[in-house]
Amino acid sequence: MTLRWWYLRRGVAWHPLLGCCAAAALVTGLLARWPSNAPAFLPALLALCAAGSAFVYDEAALPVVAVTPRGAAWRRTTRLGPAAAPLGLWTLVVLARPGDLPLQRSGWWLAGAATITLAAGLAALASRREVGAPGSMLAAVLALALVGALVVTSFLGWDSVYPIAGFSGGVWTFWLTLAAGGALALLAALRPGIRA
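Above: the chain's sequence. Below: its structure in token form.
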């Protein structure tokens, strides 16, 4: 266990991860202060948590550590632990319901778990393909996709994928599909094999 802690202290890009978590905490404070803006704050909070989990797989010295005796699978599974920090933050926000929002806890927890799992899975998959810093690219794509879904559904008059009160059947299907995609990406990234 000591070797894992040593690796995590030195190998994980803590500044972007903790920066995303701090920004998410700030958005939570804004949400508690202005709960009427929840339809805009919750997707931003979700994007920050997902971006934080993607930064866990940034590796500055990837060419060096890719050939270590422990192997890349050990590296990726070790990094999976800190990826749970944004998920923990998201769970606390959903449980606390800032601003006394009438959130459907199970639906919002699923939305967070699906998005964070997908972000961590895609970052781990990129790390498996020896992409040195997938976090910055994935953070931008995830933020654009999550906030873009809010804007597109608002303009087209469709049901939002971020309902405050209750999740419809189509929204449940959307988030379950996203969760399945994230789980498959994680399984593909963490499987043992010849590839790094």
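Residues 2-190 form one domain.
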